[in-house]
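pls read this protein:
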Amino acid sequence: MKQNMNASENKTTKAKKPANRKLTRGAMSLLLTVLFIAAVVLVNIVLSVITNTHPLYIDVTENASYQLQKETKEYLDEIKEPVDIYVLQKETDFESGDSANYKYRVQANKLIHAIENSSDNITLHYVDLAAEPTFTTPYTQVDWTKSHAVLVKSGDLYRAVDLTDMFDFDQEQYSQYGNIVITGQKVEQALTTAIVNVTTKEKTKVTVLTGQGEQDMSAFTKLLENNAYEIETVSLLNESISDDSEFVIIYDPDVDLDDKAYDTLTKWLNNDGKFGHNLFYFPNDQHELSEFPNLNALLADYGMEVRYGYVYENDEKHIIPGANHYVSLYDYGEDTTYTDNLRNSSIPVVMMLTMPVNITDDTMAKPLLKSSDKSFFFPRDMQEDAIKDFDPKTESLNGAAIGIRNDGTEGSKNSSVVVIGSYDALTANYLSTTAYNNAAYFVNLFNTLSNRDDISVVIEGKDPSSHELGITSMNAIMFPSILVRFVIPIGVLVIGLIIWIRRRHK
């Protein structure tokens, strides 16, 4: 009897133990699933908070339309001063627009966020001027009647960025119909140059001479201003050059300097024996050199002379496809002093109708830009009947050169005269394209001569309408958000339920 009771109890105990173990495993599985889902939800909440201030997105566009260029990131990463960027609209209003402009505005906003995320010292704000009309009051040096879209500020320095600085427009549509149709964006360059200007406390002064019939060089002076140079214009007929000006530019003058202007310029270069000044001279190719005796004498003092004619390039590697032999690419001189800080010295400089610069004293002067050794000099004044008998000598010619003088002691400052044989080298067409190094090279040349760190911000604008990798631009931006907020949590929930159901029925 006792044995039967013990056997019955053992069977009951054995029956209960599997049931208890199954219930315990099920409960643990459910608890782990709930805890895992809770952890994913918590991570999702944290990421949502982070993305509200630091948006995360994957850029799969062909030309990385929503990413900053490497040069921009490197510069922004070095910023030490606090910088505030104020977008003068609500964020939703800034991105809004019709179908033609919407993609550019979305791209612009993403790039602005990318600029903020590139430095811990940059803070982004959106200001609704309709709700805060007094915001602009402290910024008295800004003309608020213009269409300013952004204000960049660091300490007491600030700079307004206009819509025309940030975007390219279809000028014909605007002038004829009043329609604003954006055709490209320059947001990255516009804001980075504004940051350069408000974080550079002491600007280097550049004097552009007038009064000798010089050509317009606003494209280059604008580039210098964007790189924190201060531009002033001076006529030596009735004004003098500032003592604190480090550069003077004579750009394609129509007449020679008179004796008084020549004396003023030579004394400024000498700087009472302290030197430290730099002259940039772009000769005029429409007049005989004999018409410029004072400028010729100044060049001779620095070991150089200009030849009256053009570089005729015969090397196919130096000729631009579709252009003639007078428009060509130039190699950099052997002295790397003026190219060491170039971000990409493999990109050449292009010049047109270049007057060669001879070195007459190689103890003072050296080449900056050189043609190939297959080029030759074509005289500007050659008569047509003499061309058939013309037998030129092929040689490498100097498209630009620099002459240097100092007091001869170790560590003394230099005064330099730089001769650029083509004034076309600084026209907007050549400065605006990154296919050539004109903008970067000449800004770097100014930076080197003034002993400034390389802060050039020659940045290429991008078109967001280029081909994507099978995903639209907005889908590319929203994909990470959808993945984190919906796909992962739902996937985890489904997997957890499947595991729980399978274990429950074992």
In short: The first helix runs from residue 2 to 53. Residues 152 and 195 are 7 Å apart (CA to CA).
